[in-house]
Amino acid sequence: MAKNKYPFELFGSVVNLCRVDENLSLRQAAKKLGISATYLCLLENGEIKPSLKIINMVCNSYNIPNEFDSFCALARILPPDVEKIIFNQPHKYFKKIRQLAEPICKK
Predict the structure, then answer these.
(1) 8 Å CB contact between 58 and 18
(2) Which of 28, 44, 46, 83 could be joined to 8 by an S-S link, Cβ 3.0–4.6 Å?
(3) 14 pLDDT band (50/70/90 cuts)?
(4) Are 46 and 10 in contact (CB under 8 A)?
(5) Do both 70 and 84 map to the same domain?
């Protein structure tokens, strides 16, 4: 499998799809998000890692607040509540995650 040129390419592609789905230009979407068009372009191209604040802004701006966890996963970021849970008892949760992932990884 080919490695992505940029580590956050998948996140950026989904953000781009949200923008296109609303028929917004890059500048319009950047204004709606309260960021520069250059920064949004970098995000959409997967060239920079989004912050939790940016992920939250994207979800709220495109009226998809229930997708926050999904966007965090695409950006390879743990939501703060999940991070706290995992770091309090890492062995317990990593073991459970591996058990849950086992059927998926065998495919």
Answers:
(1) yes
(2) 46
(3) very high
(4) yes
(5) no
